[in-house]
Amino acid sequence: MAVGQISAEISAIGDRLHRTVALLRRRGYALTPSRLAAICIGGALTEQEVRWATAVDPGLAVAEGLVVERVASVEASSIRDRADGHATASPEYLEMTVEFVRRLVALAPFIASVSVAGSLASGGFRASDDVDLNLIVEDGHRHLAYVVVNFLGILHALRHRAKPADDLTRRPVAPRLMTVNLVLERSQCLPLARQDADMAFELFMAEPVFGLDALNEVVAANPGLLEHFPQLAERPAPLVIESPRRVSARWYPRLLDRPARALGEAAWRYMQWTRRKHPDALARVAFVRATMRPYTLFDQA
Description:
Blueprint: H1 3-26, H2 33-39, H3 47-56, E1 60-63, E2 66-69, H4 76-107, E3 111-117, H5 118-122, E4 131-137, H6 142-158, E5 178-185, H7 186-189, H8 197-205, E6 207-210, H9 212-221, H10 223-228, H11 257-274, H12 279-292
Parallel strand pairs: 4-5
Antiparallel strand pairs: 1-2, 3-4, 3-6
Helix pairs in contact: 1-3, 2-3, 6-11
């Protein structure tokens, strides 16, 4: 192979690594070389390729066993602590989440798909975190889905009052445990208004629990997602459950979505008010909402 071709390949791999590491950093975590190789933008690499490209790139470094931007090496220790704690905390919460989703979809037949997102999916979960859920729902049911998830989530959290909490999850009665991260109506997915790397990553990293066919339909209708993460086409889904017996959709006519929006928005704004003395928590919420636009609920603009 010509030297020029090798140099070009190294440069291309380095660029993909930079983009992936930067994307991860914006979301507050980093990965080991082997894990980074599997989820790299543009398709999977080998661990050897990641280590090689990192070694020759002055902007990247391996710190605490994680590939990070060199300027962010000081953050590696806290990220490593989260990753180490994930193995201990996540099994209980994954099992809990699967059971919650089973009850949720049985009672809410307008929900077409549910995936675990956030730290429980990415590998940095702590017991004080909440569980983020991504949903695909039938048209005219976005706000109703938000209300139903939160109502069931409160009932669920009441049984887990002893759960550790932080500024994001602490609540007066019970800690926040199950929460909505992203809600998409079917028509919003076919196609998506956004097919950028951040949206592709959100869908790629989420762990499907219910409605794999609906997720596959989204990927098929949005080929631009695969340009960023072709791994989406062959994503494993070890947590997927079979559809339980579901109540009739007649219980949830579309006309309920308007009052659900008013109720959900009031509850959401109250939650933000409770965080008014915690700027870090508010900043985190603002960042997550920014990454989800134009799909965020309760935006005024």
